[in-house]
Amino acid sequence: MIEISKKYDILTAARLSIAPMMDWTDRHCRYLHRLLSRETLLYTEMITAPALVRGGAVHLLDFSPEEHPVALQLGGSDPVELATAARLGAEAGYDEINLNVGCPSDRVQSGAFGAVLMKQPGLVADCVAAMQAASSVEVTVKCRIGVDDQDPEIVLPDFLDRMQRAGVARVIVHARKAWLDGLSPKENRDIPPLDYDLVQRMKAEFPDLHLSINGGIASLAQAADLLASGLDGVMIGRAAYHTPSDLLAAADRVIFGDTGPDADPIAVTRAMFPYIEAHLSAGGKLAQVTRHMLGLFAGRPGARGWRRVLSEGAHRDGAGVALIEAALARIETAEADVAAQSA
């Protein structure tokens, strides 16, 4: 087993974080990411306050103790409801409660939360104040630089000022506008241009505000450069999901200055076995976990065979860790062939 350290400082952990991503950063994904990096701050998928408070879906708060440091992201726009949800999250043991003011999906807009709240900064301030009063852990905000026809040069500094005056000390800024009218959620992740310069200027304007940047960051080297520019944190999304070893295996050394060896994806895979066996014993399916592992060996010899074995076999009845060992054999055989050819 790989030892997972539970000693951390949340501000240090926030130097590098993995973005909350719907349908991706569930508890199985986070457990895998934690085995790759002991230090990186992890986030849940967005969980809506109505689902917790009105729907009673408190099972959505379940997570493994090994995931620490881990933050809960909430969606909502009712201060009272969000306060209750924040209290539930704090009681569940999360290390941070984050309010989503950045998601552009139609479903989120219809619920009057997410990126549309950039148009109501006063309401956001009321929400975070209520959440802080109810939560024993820090409340943070994740936002866009603006939406639709808003001018980010005006909107973002006003938004950050309001958040700071409401008592928020940490904000994650997705450095793109969200076009709620005209672009799909997928298009909103790529088409609006990135404006890193604006976020960096905001750090100079709000030096006491802990600012993390999000959007389009694809490598540890890029993350390190952004930190060196003066930003307090970097949040990485899709790249960390699709190529988790590239982004996380060396993160503790490159970003946090740890001196231990980088994580080995093969060792990490085998360290997942007890977790997977417990999941299967509880009635879970192998594919629920392995779908997050498909990119572990991206770019390495045997990666295609690894993906094929898992993709074709993990949904079958009775599939277990033996299937993963068979997939690992594709990696180990391919790497042995490469080593023999270069000898």
Structural overview:
This protein has 343 residues and is an alpha/beta fold. It has 2 domains: 245 residues, Alpha-Beta Barrel (TIM Barrel), CATH 3.20.20; 78 residues, Up-down Bundle (Four Helix Bundle (Hemerythrin (Met), subunit A)), CATH 1.20.120.1460. 46% of the residues lie in helices and 13% in strands. The protein is built from 18 helices and 8 strands. Helix 4 runs parallel beside helix 6 and helix 6 runs parallel beside helix 7. It is globular and about 60 Å long. The protein starts with 9 loop residues before the first helix and ends with a helix.
Describe, in short, the structure shown.
With 343 residues, this protein is of the alpha/beta class. Helices cover 46% and strands 13% of the residues.
